[in-house]
Design a protein that fits this description.
2 copies of one chain form a homodimer. Chain A is mainly α. Chain A contains 9 helices and no strands. In chain A, about 35% of the residues are buried. At the A-B interface, α5, α6, α7 and α8 of A face α5, α7 and α8 of B. The first copy, chain A, binds a DNA duplex through α2.
DNA sequence: AATTAATGTTTACAAAGTAAACATTTTCCT
DNA sequence: AGGAAAATGTTTACTTTGTAAACATTAATT
C-alpha cells in the first residue's frame, strides 16, 4: 500500500458513484467514500473542492453514459425517448442529480450545462428534421413537449415501482416504452 | 411570553414552510426553525418525530393548497394542468418535496400517498369523461401522458428561469400555458 | 390538592463537511 | 545528483446539525 495512489480522484468518484447508484445521494458521505477508497478522510480535498463538486462529477459521468448510448437516435424519437427513460429507471438517483430540480446549481459547471443543452438541442434538431416547414416556435413547442413527456414519465414509473405496483397498465407502459411514446407524444 | 405556546406545531410548520419556500428545503434546519419560532432547539420533538416528519407536513400543506385551487377542473384539462404547473413554478421547492423523486418515502405517510393518488385519479377520471368509449388501457395511457407532460414541463420551465433565459420561446410557453397544453398533450 | 400527562428547556452526544498544519512523495531545475 | 518546490496524503480539530436524555413547568384529570 503506497502513500501516493495512482488515480485517487477517479477512485473516489467511482466509489461515490457506486454508493449513489446503490443507495442514493443522501447516503454518500465523505468519510465512507474515503474509507472505501482506503485513504484518509480528507484526502478527497486534494482533488475536488467540496462535496458539491463530487456531485457534479457524478452528473458528468451520467451524461457520458447517456450520451454514449445515444448514437443516431435523433431521428428516431421513440428510441431516443426510451433511451432516456431507461437510463432514468436504471440509475434513478443519478438521474435525479442530472435532471432533478432541487440541488445542484448547474450554472456553476458550464461544461455540464453544455451537456444538458446538447441533449435538448438534439431533440430540437430531431423535431426540425421531422417537420421541416414548421416555425421555430412550433418546433420549440414540440421539442419541449417531447422532453417534458419523457422526463415526466420517469417520475411516474419510478413511483409505481415503489408502490407495490398499484396498476398493471403502468407495467405495460414500462415494458412497451417505444409503443407508448409513439401513441402519445411522438407522432 | 408563556412557557406553553398555543399552537407550537402549527407555528413550527409555518416557519419551516416559509424557509423552504424562500430558500429551499436544504436551508431548513431545526435550530433555525426553533429560533424563528422562539422556542428551544428541541421543543420541536414534542410535536413531531423527526425532520422527515416535518418534511411530510410541508408536503401535506402543499397538497392542501393545490387541491384548494383545483375546483372542478377535472373536465378542463388545460386548466387543470396549468394549475399544477403554476403551483410548481410558484413553490418550486415544495413541489420538489411533493413530486420529486429523491427524498421522502411517501409510502410511510399513507394519507399523503392518498392525496397523490387522488390527484392522479382526477386525471384518469377526466380522461374517462373525455373519451368514454376508450379502453382502460387507453385511458391510462392518456392519463399518464398528461401527467408526465405537465410535471415534466415544470422541470424545463424552472431550469429556463435559472439560465438567464436562453430562449424567448420558452417564455411564450410559460405565459400561455393553457394554449401550449391544448396544442400538445391536451387534445 | 395530588397525581399524571403534556409540553418546554438544558445538556450532551454523534455524524458529517471541511479547514489547517504537518508528512511524504514526486517533479523539476540547476 | 541534490535540493527546492509542487503535489498528494494524513492527523487534528472545529463547526454545523439532528436528536436523545434528563430535568422543569404548566395543564389536565381524578
Amino acid at each position: 500500500m503506497s502513500y501516493h495512489k495512482k488515480n485517487l480522484k477517479e477512485k473516489l468518484v467511482e466509489v461515490a458513484w457506486n454508493i449513489c447508484v446503490a443507495e442514493s445521494w443522501e447516503k454518500v458521505n465523505m468519510r465512507e467514500v474515503a474509507k472505501k477508497a482506503r485513504v484518509s478522510n480528507t484526502a478527497f480535498y486534494r482533488h475536488l473542492k467540496n462535496k458539491n463538486d463530487l456531485k457534479a462529477e457524478l452528473v458528468r459521468r451520467g451524461f457520458e453514459i447517456i450520451n454514449k448510448g445515444k448514437k443516431n437516435l435523433t431521428n428516431n424519437f421513440s428510441g431516443y425517448g426510451a433511451h432516456y427513460i431507461r437510463f432514468g429507471l436504471k440509475y434513478p438517483y443519478i438521474y435525479d442529480l442530472m435532471f432533478g430540480n432541487t440541488d445542484l446549481d448547474i450554472s456553476l459547471y458550464p461544461d455540464i450545462e453544455a451537456l444538458f443543452d446538447e441533449a435538448f438541442d438534439g431533440v430540437i434538431q430531431g423535431v426540425k428534421n421531422f417537420m421541416p416547414n414548421a416555425s421555430d416556435k412550433d418546433v420549440m413547442i414540440k421539442a419541449v413537449n417531447i422532453w417534458a413527456s419523457v422526463h415526466g414519465l420517469v417520475g411516474i414509473l419510478r413511483r409505481s415501482d415503489l408502490q407495490a405496483n398499484k396498476d398493471k397498465r403502468l407495467k405495460w407502459i414500462k415494458n412497451n416504452l417505444e409503443e407508448y411514446l409513439k401513441m402519445t407524444t411522438f407522432k
